[in-house]
Specification:
By secondary structure, this protein is α+β, with helices and mostly antiparallel strands. It has three helices and nine strands; from the N terminus they run αββββαβββββα. The strands form three sheets. A five-stranded mixed β-sheet has the order 3-4-5-6-7, covered by helices on one side. It has a two-stranded antiparallel ribbon with strand order 1-2.
């Protein structure tokens, strides 16, 4: 049972597979009982044909007023609970990025560059200034 706060009803993989159209969920599957759909996912290794059936290496959310609480509390809790190694939150208003790991939380500003080693052969560099030029 998930310890994430219940902002929305919980949906399973079976529910998700029966739906038609595009749905905002709390297209990654971190367990059979938990489907999340972050704004962006980074997946290292073999790419899925339909949807990701394992946790992503990195989940990214861009905050908005309508999703702020869900992204900062519910989705963050689900990612931690299901061992998503990195959860990155982009907040356009103060122009910050906060990187959450299971053991740490760091906030970066416009002048920073973030280097994340996702595994032995997969990494990412984010130049915050370039990112916010486009947000």
């Amino acid at each position: 049972m998930s310890t994430a706060p219940r902002f929305l009803p919980t949906y399973t993989l079976d529910d998700y597979q029966q739906w038609e159209g595009d749905w905002e969920l709390i297209d990654g599957i971190v367990s059979r009982e938990t489907v999340i759909r972050p704004d962006l996912m980074v997946v290292c290794g073999e790419q899925p044909e339909r949807h990701l059936e394992r946790r992503p290496s990195l989940a990214v959310e861009v905050l908005s007023e309508s999703t702020r609480e869900r992204d900062l509390i519910a989705k963050r809790s689900l990612c931690r609970e299901h061992h998503v190694p990195y959860y990155l939150v982009i907040d356009p208003a103060p122009r910050t990025l906060t990187l959450f790991t299971p053991d740490d939380e760091r906030t970066f500003g416009v002048d920073d560059t973030i280097r994340i080693s996702l595994d032995d052969c997969c990494g990412i560099n984010i130049q915050c200034a370039r990112l916010f030029d486009r947000v």
